[in-house]
Each structure stands twice: as C-alpha cells, then as structure tokens.
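From the methods appendix. Each design record in this collection lists the tokenized structure first, followed by the designed amino acid sequence. Records were kept in a plain field format so they could be parsed without special tools. The example shown here is representative of the layout used throughout.

RECORD:
FOLD TOKENS (206 positions):
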C-alpha cells in the first residue's frame, strides 16, 4: 500500500523531557528480527523509495526498512510504527549499550500547529532534555530526517540517513511509541509490556 499524507523535514525547536524505557540485560535478551517476508519487503512508500532490507521488529508492531552502503558505512532507514493519533514515535541506535541511555534517536509527532515534527536528539540520561540536537552535538551524523503519516493517519513513518559509528554494521537499537504529546512535548509512554521490551540488535549488512 502506498504511504500518504503529511511529510516534514527536520525541525529545530526547544522541547523538554519525555521518558524512553531502559532494558536491564539481566532481565531481557535483546532480540534480533530481520526479515525479507512480504509483510515488510513488499511495502511501498510515498516517495517510491525502495529499501533492500527490512526488519519486522518484535515489539509494538513496528518495522524498520533500510539501505546499507558498506563503502561509506551509512544506512538510510524508514521506521514505521502504528500511530496513536496525538502520540509520538522514536527510533535510535545505542553504540555502547542496550537501553535508553546512550541512544541517539530520531523522534516524530504532530505539532499543535498541525505540522509533523521530526528531529534527532540525544538520550544522555534518564531525563533527557529532548531538545533537537545540532550537528556538533551528535555522536554520529544524521541527515535527511523527515516524517509523514501513512495509511490514512494510522501509521507514522520516520526517515533518516545515519553515518554509522566505527567500522561495524551490527548495533543495538531502541524504538518506542507514546500515546500523547502535551504542550508539544512527547509525554511518557507506558512502563509495562512491549514498551519496556522494545530494544534489540540489528546487523545492517544482512
């Protein structure tokens, strides 16, 4: 099904904190889910962009599509998550851990002015500022950040191109969704069920 509706580019605006879950390695083993099944490989996007690989993620009904360029060690991603109306979605990489702290994420939601906001941010503590991060603040470059609603508003799609840190292609990643945004700030997500298990490992070369 072709994606549709509203799309935006990266927006700079001050935001304060929201909460993403952290996963204790003693209680959860990060999952790896990479698939070429028709459930994700056959999906089409509004821009007609094609992605060579996709991962049907094991939590929150989410999917990650990606194109990995080995020579440059970059990956272009499209993260799809069910939309909760006034809610938000996020996806990011944690080069040094398996949970929230240390993750560099891209976040998207609908602003009160009707636009779709998408930007990179640093989750450097359990109470991050969630301010959009500029290039000098990022631990690794992120570009082409954008987001749109698809499936008549039932799905949010977040796009980004990431220059992967180091020389490897395997990373820990974290994804999340929340049901509300208050005063243009993503509110805390549930701290039970899939929301506290939404982390895993992915090898972009596969």
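DESIGN:
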């Amino acid at each position: 099904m072709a994606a549709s509706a509203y799309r935006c580019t990266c927006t700079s605006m001050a935001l304060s904190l929201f909460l993403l879950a952290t996963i204790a390695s003693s209680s959860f083993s990060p999952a790896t889910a990479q698939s070429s099944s028709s459930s994700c490989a056959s999906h089409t996007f509004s821009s007609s962009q094609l992605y060579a690989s996709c991962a049907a993620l094991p939590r929150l009904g989410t999917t990650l599509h990606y194109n990995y360029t080995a020579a440059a060690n970059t990956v272009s991603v499209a993260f799809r998550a069910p939309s909760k109306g006034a809610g938000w979605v996020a996806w990011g990489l944690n080069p040094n851990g398996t949970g929230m702290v240390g993750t560099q994420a891209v976040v998207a939601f609908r602003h009160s002015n009707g636009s779709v906001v998408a930007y990179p941010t640093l989750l450097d503590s359990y109470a991050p500022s969630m301010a959009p991060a500029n290039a000098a603040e990022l631990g690794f470059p992120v570009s082409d950040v954008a987001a749109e609603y698809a499936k008549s508003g039932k799905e949010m799609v977040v796009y980004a191109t990431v220059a992967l840190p180091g020389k490897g292609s395997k990373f820990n990643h974290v994804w999340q969704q929340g049901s509300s945004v208050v005063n243009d700030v993503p509110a805390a997500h549930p701290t039970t069920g899939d929301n506290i298990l939404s982390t895993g490992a992915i090898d972009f070369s596969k």
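APPENDIX NOTE: The CA atoms of residues 169 and 205 lie 6 Å apart.
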